[in-house]
Amino acid sequence: MTTNENKNPDLETLVLEIKNHLNVVNAALIQPEDFSAASYDDIVELHEYVKKKQGKLTLMEIEGVLDELRSLRQSK
Hints:
By secondary structure, this protein is mostly helical. It has one domain (about 10-70). It has helices at about 10-20, 40-55, 60-70. Residues about 1-5 have low confidence and may be disordered.
């Protein structure tokens, strides 16, 4: 992907994949539209981390990812 492309569709895909890998009870709280393109690089890093763990995240790791997602969410 080039830096000139619109990153929003990819951001949505990344957030949805992270959400699916986390297997959290209240996954409805994680919505792609809550994140801006400005947080794209951080979302990519989280996605790579979660994908690398292949669904074998510890509870502490899940909490850490959720905390990071919470900090990246846009204020409404």
